[in-house]
Amino acid sequence: MRLFRGISLLLLPVVLGGCAAGSVFMPYPIQASGWQRSLEQSQPDSALTALDRKRDSADRLLYLQERGRIGQLASNIDASKTDFDAAISAYAALEDRAVISASATLASGASLITNDNARPYAGSLYERVFVHQYQALNYLANGDGSAALVEVRRANLIQNEALAKKENTVDSAREDAEKKGFDVERYEGYFTGMDVAAGRVKSGFQNAATFYLSGLIYEATGNNNDAYIDYRKALELVPDNPYVQRDVVRTGLKTGIEDAQKLARQIGNVQYGPAKGEGELVIYLEEGFVPPKEAVGIPIWTSKTLNTVSFPVYSGNIPAPSSMVVDVSGRTLETSLLVDTRALAVRTLKDEIPGMLVRAFLRLLTKQEMQRQLQQQDSSGLMGLAGTLYSLVTDKADLRSWLTLPGSGQVLRIPLPAGAHRVAVPGMSAPLDVEVRNGRPTLVHLAVLPGRTYSHIYPL
Q1: What single-letter DSSP state applies at residue 183?
Q2: If we measure between CA atoms, which residue out of 203, 170, 202, 205 comes closest to residue 188?
Q3: What digits encode the pLDDT tens for the residues 177-211?
Q4: Which residue, 295, 306, 356, 457, could crosslink 397 as a Cys pair with Cβ 3.0–4.6 Å?
Q5: Distance from C-alpha of 205 to C-alpha of 158, rounded to nearest angstrom
């Protein structure tokens, strides 16, 4: 009876962790790979059906994000909007730290005995920014430019606020580790394989695509001053992007900003905008998927005991995005990078490592104390063995992340004569017919995946 009671106590945290424990026993990337294949095979509805069964799980936020993205690609705009609205509400609830519910407390306690998978999924800043960016596209699909602008403003505000407190967040994690007597620097060498990819971005959340989209909407409504400000913010993140350079010059010259004149002299004699009888084609092209996290074993010392703990990493080569070739009415053109989502994901994980190390250290101490108490209660040694087996089963790295996000987002923007044009990318089953209106921009969203390209057109 005592043995049964002890094992029950060990299993209790997993039960209290709710459906989040599903990620303990089936790594999330394995689940998500099925939804990715569904998108590649032009079967998004099967992915949506599978995800619908997970609405009530502790990882609800994660599944809502996946559903919102897949629904949007499948042109199920209303369903996508509903899912992203729910995700936005979930983030707002997580942000309210004044009142901690009993279930949240229990889930956190469970993670000290099991692993981070026992904690309900809370997302990351770069994912939250993408939620608002995609919701803006949903509003554009419904012809509601004002609501779309509200969403990209929210995305930009999240980035600005996060940037203001970024250094404090990273430093506080290190200070917390030092207070608990844990030397983070001793273990950072195990994660240097992510340094190159993480170094491609300034932070784990700054996304030039959201600033660019807000600039595009502002400009389409005649607000050149605000358009210039947001194009300029995008340019700070992707300074070599020729299309963003031209947008900064064009809107800056219209508002008489001196810096725009300096930039115009630097980039030389190019066409900054449409001439008479022309409109603009703006292509926002996304390619591939973000990489999944993988688990590696890291040795951690507690007192005189060496323990191997499973941690999430991005392993192997994480390639920098390459320009994509686009055929526009017989002209071969190239895109330029706006957001390197792969690098954002890697940088986010790198910044989270100090906190993960501290939690792993505390988790080890908690488990070891539990095993010690169990061994004292049971002279046969079975309880201690049960505790050891439990530790082995539950020592799983938290590999959860939004995996239907693109590997990168890129832009191509050119003036074209008003009228019908054809857009195609390699591997596309058929060219996309696009109507360019005189004096107006037309936004085309392409999501290029192996075997399938999804497309949406937004006249602005």
Answers
A1: -
A2: 170
A3: 677 677 888 888 999 999 999 999 999 999 999 99
A4: 295
A5: 9
**Alpha-carbon distance 340 to 411, whole Å?**
12
317-360 pLDDT per residue, tens: 899 999 999 999 999 999 999 999 999 999 999 999 988 888 88
Q: Between helices 28-40 and 44-52, what is the axis angle to 10°?
A: 150
CATH code of the domain in which 255 resides: 1.25.40.10
DSSP class per residue in 307-355? EEEEEEE--S--PPP---EEEETTEEEE-EEEE-HHHHHHHHHHHHHHH
Q: Whole-angstrom Cα distance, residue 220 to residue 344? A: 29
> In the predicted model, what is the mean pLDDT of residues 91-102?
67
* Phi, psi (deg, nearest 5) at residue 256: 70, 30
Mean pLDDT of the chain: 87
Element (H, E) at 82: helix 77-95
What range defines the domain where residue 353 resides? Answer: 2-459
**How far is the C-alpha of 79 from the C-alpha of 85, rounded, in Å?**
10
Count of domains for the chain: 1
Confidence band, pLDDT 50/70/90 cuts, at residue 381: low
| Residues 378/9, Cβ–Cβ less than 8 Å | no
pLDDT of residue 17: 47
Q: Quick one: 304 exposed, middle or buried, by C-beta within 10 A (0-12, 13-18, 19+)? A: exposed
CA 367 from centre of chain = 32
The whole model's pTM is what?
0.90
